[in-house]
């Protein structure tokens, strides 16, 4: 006989303990639905209360317990994928932070399952419990309105301000680095004004905060502009309002520093002090003109050894471009690609091996994430949890590890210049100019939108106003 029961997933964070709220929410959502079977992840908190609700209402329970022995840390995401399949509804009681619940929510939505998310605040600790350290995120949750007199269920609490900011950024497909930066600026803005909600603030408060950054914080002009962009995003796309005319802001001084350029002997001395894969990374910056993050975000398919070419995807400004691949790096690149394949095959054997892909591409090509050609050229040595999906995967190497390697190699080589990883890119452009390549060609290889940006490298060639001979050198 065919089972006609609707499968309803009830899950959420382990800290959820509000059984009356769960009952009221589920009674409202399941009214008139007919026979129901409750699907549970078998964890504490919301999952356990969902099973209690099912027992009280005489409903069947399907429990999906993660197999940690077989799948290790990937067991949770695998369990989530299996239990959302075929559900008619998924109800989550989420604290806004649990990565496991975030992963289950994302998988349910991807599977086309109708999703109801009930946000809640962590419960207060029992009397006598020491207060936890202050959280960096300001608690700006609006107070929920009282329950209607008809005795209906209370509405779920409104999401916190920073959660709303994150949601707005993700809907617009902003990068994770931008998301972290913008939410941090909103947090600092709220804390600067004694935790007042931005709904009650406007142009005057924005002006005061930006002026504080320049005068007391002594931030750079680019940092101040980023803070301004974050606050404009908050008001326009989260609060749905204009802050008003921003005037009278004390602007941070804009200083254009001369790029640090290394000679060929200096580059060689630094590279000799670097182990692989960091040496190969720096050779790509010096030999191909790549930025630090462009190197780290390279995928196997972006390397064309036959054409001696690199394709840079989503560079600065979201643009793609092609640049040269030096013949000198071919042997080390082949060894690195062999290492990538070895690590990827081990990950696949362990039930992992799915690399991060942009959301639209992941939907269009669901199997691409596990293919070798989409893997990072410089994968991290450890697995990590995706902050958005909660899925465990291998990301690319972290920028801080490369920066530390460059700093150490520069010191070991005895250079007196304050050279960072970006000095290799500066040197790429300068040496091409010295070799008489057309500046428009160099502009294209570097990915500059404006040729004036490329012109800063002419300082090494003594072009323009500085192309003069000192009187002391005159015969």
Describe the structure.
The chain is an alpha/beta fold and 475 residues long. Helix content is 42%, strand content 9%. The chain has helices at 19-30, 46-57, 68-71, 75-84, 99-110, 161-171, 176-192, 203-215, 221-238, 264-272, 278-288, 292-296, 330-349, 359-364, 399-412, 422-434, 439-446, 451-454, and strands at residues 6-12, 36-40, 60-63, 89-94, 115-119, 303-304, 309-312, 321-324, 384-385, 392-393. The termini are far apart. Belongs to the 'phage' integrase family. This is Tyrosine recombinase XerC. One of its GO terms (molecular function) is DNA binding. It comes from Urbifossiella limnaea.
Summarize this structure as a short list of keywords or feature phrases.
alpha/beta; Rossmann fold; DNA polymerase, domain 1; five-stranded parallel sheet; 18 helices; 10 strands
Number of helices: 18
Unreliable spans = 129-147
Judging from the principal axes of the Cα atoms, what is the shape? globular
Estimate the helix proportion, in percent. 40-55%
What is the β-strand count? 10
Major sheet strand order: 3-2-1-4-5
Per DSSP, what share of the residues sits in E-state strands of 2 or more residues? Answer: 5-15%
Rounded mean pLDDT is 83
Which structural category fits the helices and strands? alpha/beta
Q: Spell the H/E element sequence.
A: EHEHEHHEHEHHHHHHHEEEHHEEHHHH
The major pleated sheet works out as:
5 strands, parallel
In whole angstroms, the N-to-C terminal distance is 106 Å
What would you report as the Rg, rounded to the nearest angstrom? 28 Å
